[in-house]
Specification:
Rossmann fold, 14 helices, 402 residues
Length: 402
Amino acid sequence: MYNLANKRVLLGVTGGIAAYKCAELVRRLREQGAEVQVAMTRGAREFVTPLTFQALSGRPVRTELFSNEAEAAMGHIELARWADCVLVAPASANFIARLAAGLADDLLTTLCLATTAPIALAPAMNVQMWNNPATSANVRVLKERGVILFGPATGDQACGETGPGRMLEPGQLVEALTLLFQREDRLRGQCVLITAGPTQETIDPVRYISNRSSGRMGYALCKAALNAGAEVTLITGPVALEPPAGARVVQVRTALEMRDAVMAEAGQADIYIAAAAVADYRCAEDAATKIKKTAGILTLRLTPNPDILAEVAALPRAPFTVGFAAETESLREHAKAKLAGKHLDMIAANLVGEGKGFERPDNALEVYWQGGERSLPLAAKERIATQLMELIADRYHEKNKN
């Protein structure tokens, strides 16, 4: 029914009575062709022995962060890179709290912090613990960071109470994991070209014109495209960010440099996402030496920079073209005018200024395309990027289904 052939699943088992169900989960995952590596917390070993999971998975179970055998080769980092997905089942209230706090005080939390693979949690706990405001806050934080929740289900619990907090059954988890991988493969084999960050337009050897873009949105989109299976080229202006592993990165500084880099790549791209905040103007003449301060008014003559987005959209074989619109007012009107005027396939618009948009870890977008629109409410930019990439994949495949 499900196909997980050759998928590498890192199964984290935490302390809870539902841990016994994970023996059946490992068996079902193996039946569907997945490779399963189990990592157990100390609490999990109070309910099920590592030997059980070793017999079912065919792999030695990892239990300790500091292992003489594994640590010689930085085993926890190697394992974090090995996984196509991390599934924590059961995910106890204690584990959820530690992960939300960013702790790395045992093997499983360290793996979750070290991996770039999708992380899914299957919560299992008493109904009162699940409904506790602290747990709700921790879950909200994790969702904003892009962590996926499978469940919990509602029903009878081992403590005798009834309500939300039951771990999903093994068959349900296999189905959810299969759907996750299907989503993650949406752009497999597609070439995605993304621009990110600001440009810097020279005034003189020590000064330039720029803007407040941090590049976070473009870099988050790069990671989301990689997670969706795409081959990604990232053309980036000057930012203080580390590019996601797996992307081909082209560093540029000015709008003209970005234009040349984009046009060199656009012909091979299936999707172009223009997330960079490209300067609209540059100095008509930049000074060869530093301009000295005087008592008088300094006038700079500015000339327009090329419209890279419109140029790509006008190519004979244009990629699926996604623009961005950062506005301070009349968001819908300006975004839809840009969508139509530049013949784009999609545009993502957001308000900036007064603590919105630039230089922030979160964002909210209004996304428009011909005949449709979608609001993406305020969330971490990583979460927004994943949601936007899903929309882009939907519209791209819809456009190219024939």
